């Protein structure tokens, strides 16, 4: 029987795993369990043992209590909650900040523009590739 707390923990494991670009197989290897067990955790079908939850907190660099919150908050930056809804905006702001930190280096700025333009062109030509790089 699925307990509500197991479902909450499972959803948070999935959010954190995806945010860090890990597959179920990759997380399973880090935890020394099967990918099927990770899937059962994420679906809330199996309770996560405290030792595994502690190891996941290390992997995801979060506090254990973060697994128990039933909200859209996926992590905090400077004690400000970051939700899925504002994550894309945050990533864009961070990219702009990083770009501007290059200062007056026209060469570096042009190189970055070229890389981004190339990626956009590639993803337009081969949309299936963009699915493989989502966070």
Keywords:
single chain; 135 residues; mainly alpha; 434 Repressor (Amino-terminal Domain); two-stranded antiparallel sheet; 7 helices; 2 strands; 63% helix; elongated
Concise account of the structure shown:
The chain is mainly alpha-helical and 135 residues long.
What does this structure look like?
It is a single chain. The protein is mainly alpha-helical and 135 residues long. It has two domains: 67 residues, 434 Repressor (Amino-terminal Domain), CATH 1.10.260; 51 residues, no CATH class. Helices cover 63% and strands 7% of the residues. It has seven helices and two strands, in the order H-H-H-H-E-E-H-H-H. A hairpin with a 2-residue loop joins strand 1 and strand 2. Helix 2 crosses helix 3.
Going across the biggest sheet, name each strand in turn: 1-2
CATH homologous superfamily label of the largest domain: lambda repressor-like DNA-binding domains
Instruction: Using the coordinates above, name the CATH class of the largest domain.
Output: Mainly Alpha
Instruction: Compute the number of helices.
Output: 7
Distance between the termini: 31 Å
What share of the residues lie within helices? 55-70%
Task: Find the CATH topology of the largest domain.
Answer: 434 Repressor (Amino-terminal Domain)
Radius of gyration: 18 Å
Taking the sheet with the most strands, its summary is:
2 strands, antiparallel
Strand content: 5-15%
Order of helices and strands: HHHHEEHHH
Q: Into how many domains do the coordinates divide?
A: 2
Tell me, what's the shape?
elongated
